Records
---
Amino acid sequence: MISWECIGQQTPGENNMKNALKEIWDRGDPVLNGWCSIGSPFAAEIMAAQGFDSLTIDGQHGVLGYSEALPMLQAMRASRKTLLARVPWREPGVIMKYLDAGAMGIICPMINSREEAAEFVSFLRYPPKGQRSFGPTRAAFACPGYSIESANAEILAIAMIETADGVRNLKEIAATPGLDGLYVGPIDLTLGVSGGRLPPGFDREEPEMIDVQKRIAEAARNAGIHAALHCGSHDYAMRGIEWGYDMVTVLGDVRYLASAASASVDAFRRLSGTAASGGDLGAY
């Protein structure tokens, strides 16, 4: 599988770096995305060794900042997987820093209109296609032969749909030139669409939420772009694939750590007939 790598010598106008996600999608296969919220290069390296097609560093809700994200990208480079980042907001400086660090795609939260989507896309593209400032400090080392043309062609711009406004403007957002995909954050989407009437959580079963998720996948498909769904279980991820999503994320490093540790402790307590010495702390 070809990933974040260079092909041959740099030639002006030639696409010298390939994004593996595009190749997977071209084959008609879905992408399994890993989610990294722990600010640790070692934890990121472990996640990168598990067979995901791509990995996303969560710079929005993850317990990390840019100083932790950079070594995480370095630790995961050897996996040759496509490395993405979710940024805190639609802010050009932060987006460009993650790109300069070597991220091959940006997931941006709270995109509510075509205008916001177009502005977001412009931050990822060098002129004349956008307004990205040139300075790929690490990206140029991660991919010798880095070029403006290749970066513009291969870096993914993925907008999160997670508000009532985003759903109302769904078709216009999906049709934004240069946008590569829509990403569903089901918790914020549920809070936004229901006006806080429904509780937060993954894997929605309410008919209205299933309908909204299906509409988002359909809008992406009709616009010729991709759709991603954040899930709480593998079974629900497969339902998402059936609805037309071609990228799914199932939980993430925090949940994997908590669930595996909890399962091991529960098994010991059950077999030994002992109780925990202190109160258990739940994990979000």
---
Amino acid sequence: MSYSSGRILLSSQREGQVSRFRAWVIVAVPLAAILFQVYVPLFFQFLSFLEMPLLVVMYFALMRRNQVSALLLGALVGLAQDSLSKNPLGVFGIVNTLVGYFAASVGMRLDVDQGVIRLLLSFFFYLFHQLMYWVLVRALLGQQLAFEVQKTLMLALLNAVVGVSLFHFLDKLRERV
């Protein structure tokens, strides 16, 4: 563990390095995640727990370490997700924007190339995502929505495990410098 320039747990050779991706990756991966979220649960109900758009927004925000681009990506992915689902337009847009911003902020402070850190961040950001969604639906829309703590914790763990595997795959799409 090293403490340099206000960063925590940055001990790899790539200390604080911003990852770069080709333009097609930044377009195709979120689009595939949104399509996965909309269409795969129609055929495979047991995969409906996966929040692929959230995981993709989180990955790009953590790896690119740029809060503005994470805000934009989160907003675009969230609005696209809202437009293709039965949810009110803007709720996922707001929530994914917040997740993108905070993930980019955390990415600037932590070494996010470590599997354990990725697992913990995926778990935390899934909980944050669900809590913010619950707050927005209750506060802005005035709808009664139950927040089941045990179910949310279990789904957070499942999404975190899938997230670590997904992040490992997406690492292969990074540009080599």
